[in-house]
Amino acid sequence: MFVVTPLKSPYRVNWLTSSSFVIAVLLALPIFVIAGFVFSGSADVFTHLYHTVLFDYVSNSLLLMLGVGFGVLLLGIPTAWLTSVCDFPGRRIFAWALLLPLAVPAYIIAYTYTGLLDFAGPVQMAIRELTGLGYGEYWFFEIRSLAGAILMLALVLYPYVYLLSRAAFLEQSASTLEVSRTLGYNQWQGLFKLALPLARPAIIAGLTLALMETLADYGTVQYFGVNTFTTGIFRTFYGFGDAVAAAQLAVCLLSFVALLVLVEKYSRRKSRYHSSAEFKAKAKLIYLSGWKAAVAFLICLLPIVFGFLIPAGQLAFWCLTQADLSDGSFFQLAWNSFYLAFLAAIIAVSFALILAYASRLNPKKVVRFSVATAGLGYALPGTIIAIGVIIPFAWMDHQLIAMAKKWFSVDIGLVLSGTLVALLFAYTVRFLAVSLGAVQSGLDKIKPSIDGAARTLGYTPMQVLKQIHVPLMKSSVLTALLIVFVDVLKELPATLILRPFNFNTLAVRAFELASDERLIDAAPASLLIVAVGLIPVILLSRSIAKGRAGS
Amino acid sequence: MKFTRVVSTMAMAAVFATGFLPLSVSADDNLVNVYSARKEALIKPLFDRFTAETGIAVNLVTGKADALLKRLEVEGDATPADLFVTVDAGRLYRAKDAGVLQVATSETLDKLIPAHLKDVDGYWYGMSQRARTVFYVKGKVDPAELTSYEDLADPKWKGRICIRSSSNIYNQSLVASMIDANGVDATETWAKGLVANFAKPPAGGDTDQLRAAASGVCDLAIANTYYYARLVHSNKESDNEVAAKLGTAWLNQDGRGAHVNVSGVGVTKYASNVESAIKLMEFMASDESQVWYGAENNEYPVVEGVEVSPVLKGLGEFKADDIELSKLGTNNRAAVELMDRAGWK
């Protein structure tokens, strides 16, 4: 772990501040590279887009965000509240099962539902056979639409809100509940006037992640024929072959996200959210029975059924009945995916810890600005990040090659851009926001005064870290690891561009078959992504639960 | 802390398991490094045969054409890539235009591949062909009615046509070929007429359009030949049923001919293994490989005299447009802009 020392020793603090500054700047580099494109190229493409399709792009993106935002809150908060504050049959299973949709990539859930609900799929086929009606003579939900895209994204992104807001509900100590009783609130008033406002930073953090992921999504919307700002970026890149204009559009997207983040920060500028309880009295669960229990059960069951069981079942069905399983390299693919995701999770979370501690102990504006900039990477499509990574890396490579030639007269080749280094770096940039969000929300809950108190009691900084921060931070760090792991497992575009020769992952394989319009043959690889993603989801959610039970 | 130990052990194991060591780019007669925008499944079997026959190993990265192109550009003279493989002449043109290819002359290739299927200056060669044409629902459409691409904008087809998004390069190249034939203004009017005839907003791929037509959403689907041939060839009954409901119509047979495009390959500007790279290209143009393209990928050969696969033969013979394919590249931007203006999503 990291030697992070709060307070005192100016030398140590400098070490932390300077290393965090270097990390932050390094991670923000790809974003600066992309932003640098603003100063080159011409405005031709912009004029053209403005006169034709820009309005569509922007309005579709906004509607998509609005819909997904609403959807993830609607699915995430009630389930989080029910599983953390209430007791009803199945609660323990729901507590971790509600995370399962996290393991399903958005583009894959889109493929499976299209296979099911499309006019040529089994459901509509059955309707036509039963009723004798033809296409257009009956109404059926058009899955390939803006509404369809909203539904797909909300189903797989709500776990972000669920995960973070559940953690917040669980952290709210029994005293919160007692306060609410003292104020004469009933359960509902307690929820809306105390629990929700207190959980607001966590809910917003989850929502932000879901919305940034939504903006970065290309696979789903493109497959559904919904033209968003992001598909516009790629149309400009692939259609016009104009990487500069594409990067400029990406900068617009970034500025928009930065603005949103700023507005949110400003809106709660004065509030501080630290847990007040030094010891955690175990909150008494609200016991539900009868129809209340049934409603709670259903509310928790539906997201799992639609976000996980149906798509995974459909994939399994395709695997068993129709898919071409002749290619036996699945073990290699799964291993590649697994260790890449694992390494990326370790790296991203380590960096997040350093950055989070640095900005806690030494909130310099420069550090904060770089950290915030690096965190924006999550809203950028992976392809754009990859280009932002490969440009400076290739430049550094050329310097290295020149040096090696001059001093050792050997040709070392591309040491950075042609290897996994570039790929892991891109993952870190892309997913820093995720790990940082989780780590920071954990850290925020430890009041700075606790550190002070412990030091007064004669604890060394290391002891403070070991005996206070490590136990208190454990579940946040695990959460961060889990999300980055699963995200990298699902990541496609950056992997596609930056991977070295003869190196494939499950996501690459699934994408290649699916984009070759062989959805059914893509099922085995897709199912494996889900399966590999499940292992850490289950393990970590258990260990989080265990950590809680002990406190 | 136990957790930390487990984590670090696994991390170390992972690092050693694959090796972070970069690939050496030193010239090696027994190696070709390929950046391919063709999917692995559609190209690797061919490379495996090449390796088995010649002993020359092939390293492969696949990805999206424009992204690989960007990678080639920024890697510059340090690039490990020797060959760039991609689909669609528009992309090949873009690679040439970006200055990442070199002229690699081969008498064998010049002899085998007809002039309109390779770059005028010798920067790239087409290796397989596909046509983009219209498939009609048998019983609902009289094939005699299908005369030309131009005719698809006629109001008689209102609400009867399925075609994918204009973001797709196949549609962009089709429109680029029409710009060459009829000019920008006429083509824009045509595109507006075509959009007015759409049965539904464009979504999904070519196969989806074929399935849509077969299940009654529309009467005509525009698709590349290999997607249709794959449904015929498929061992899934439901695929065969879709194919059985549809017929192939060849357009502009009295004029310029049906729109065709290629998958192609070029040697990169800074290739270290030029000789092996050319050997691989020659292998791709050999009779054996050309037959393979037909049997496995349902594509037409570029080399004349090579037997067309039985499934493709079933689609009937046709006259192909022999437009110089580089023009698809030069017209690409105009095509995309025009489709934006026409409201083709």
Characterization of this structure:
The complex is a heterodimer of chains A (551) and B (345). By secondary structure, chain A is mainly α. Chain A folds into two domains: 1-32 and 322-551, MetI-like fold, CATH 1.10.3720.10; 41-161 and 194-267 and 287-315, MetI-like fold (Orthogonal Bundle), CATH 1.10.3720.10. In chain A, 75% of the residues lie in helices and 1% in strands. Chain A has 22 helices and two strands. Chain A has a two-stranded parallel sheet with strand order 1-2. In chain A, helix 1 (10-36) packs across helix 16 (382-408) and helix 3 (54-85) packs parallel to helix 7. Mean pLDDT of chain A is 83; it is low at 1-11. In chain B, strands 1, 2, 3, 4, 5, 6, 7, 8 and 9 form a nine-stranded mixed sheet that branches. Chain B starts with a helix and ends with a helix. The radius of gyration of chain B is 22 Å and the shape is globular. Chain B has helices at 2-18, 40-54, 65-75, 89-97, 107-112, 169-182, 184-196, 206-214, 225-233, 237-245, 274-284, 287-297, 310-313, 326-330, 332-342; strands at 31-36, 57-62, 83-87, 125-137, 161-162, 220-224, 246-249, 259-267, 300-301. Helix content of chain B is 45%, strand content 15%. Chain B contains 15 helices and nine strands. Chain B has 345 residues and is an alpha/beta fold. Chain B folds into two domains: 30-129 and 261-307, Periplasmic binding protein-like II (D-Maltodextrin-Binding Protein, domain 2); 130-259 and 318-342, D-Maltodextrin-Binding Protein, domain 2 (3-Layer(aba) Sandwich), CATH 3.40.190.10. Chains A and B meet through helix 2, helix 6, helix 10, helix 11 and helix 14 of A and helix 1, helix 2, strand 2, helix 3 and helix 8 of B.
